[in-house]
Amino acid sequence: MISDKIYERLTGEKGYFDSRIIYVSETGPKVDKKKRLAVMDQDGYGVKYLTLGNELVLTPRFSPTSQQVTYMSYFKNLPRVYLLNIETGIQDLVGDFPGMTFAPRFSPDGKKIIMSFAQEGNSDIYTMDIKTRVVEKLTDHPSIDTSPSYSPDGSYITFNSDRSGFQQIYTMKSDGTNVKRISFGEGLYGTPVWSPRGDLIAFTKLYRNKFYIGVMRSDGSGERLLTENYYQEAPSWAPNGRVLVFYRETASDSSGRGGGAKLWSIDLTGYNERLIQTPTDASDPSWSGLLSGK
């Protein structure tokens, strides 16, 4: 909290030091990874493991309003969406759908979960009210719509879709109307996530066999690529909207060695790219809001 005060005094921006990152801890050989949910302070200290690793876990995402996370876990080879309270350890099954569910994420007020739900090879975007469990379908298209993320005021949603023939980024109103494509550069775009400031959307881009983490304005203009590598994905914003965390994998050699995943952070300017030390390999990071709530 003191660091946040110093940062704000020096830069005029809110700090992000009093926050946590949840991620997927990975151990074991590449063909048989043990994946557990883990949470730590944003600088890598105080790591705690939240699941045992008996079941595969993916895409943990922090609630913007509480120390609660939503994530996907495979139970008997079927994906299910769960809620987990980090403070109490209480786990709750959100939904057990007949198809496949992907990429759950909270609404800005923490009252809904938005996710992708696949049936018969087609994937659309749905919301679920956490309290009432009422499900609402937002997209209805024969393409694959996935990776939804709300704008901070809850009025818009960004997602990626291959409805144009190639995977691109789209926005729509929170009721599913007014769908617009906003990415028009070369390559494939995915994993869009709206900045908590509301001004930018971060994304992953695949172009000429390289992966990029970039940002663009919410209308698709001003695209900037911040970092490139062999494989990197899943950007998540610091609560002040000035720093991104993501994960990066290294290539395996001819003997299958290597291929580990690590967490990295980078400033919105494209500078100050840093490895975040974790006890194990790590992927799928998600940044919390300020723990002080301010």
Widest sheet, order of strands: 3-2-1-24
Instruction: Report the CATH topology name.
Output: Neuraminidase
CATH class designation: Mainly Beta
User: Total strand count, please?
Assistant: 24
| End-to-end separation | 10 Å
CATH superfamily: TolB, C-terminal domain
Shape: globular
The assigned CATH architecture is 6 Propeller
Helices and strands, in order, run as: HEEEEEEEEEEEEEEEEEEEEEEEE
**Helical proportion?**
under 10%
Provide the gyration radius in Å.
Answer: 18 Å
Oligomer status: single chain
Number of helices: 1
Report a brief summary of the structure.
The protein is mostly beta strands and 294 residues long.
Provide structural commentary:
The chain contains 1 helix and 24 strands. The chain is mostly beta strands. It has one domain: TolB, C-terminal domain (Neuraminidase). The strands form 6 sheets. A 4-stranded antiparallel beta sheet has the order 3-2-1-24, with no helix packed on it. Strands 4-5-6-7 form a 4-stranded antiparallel beta sheet, with no helix packed on it. It has a 4-stranded antiparallel beta sheet with strand order 8-9-10-11, with no helix packed on it. The termini are close together. The mean pLDDT is 90.
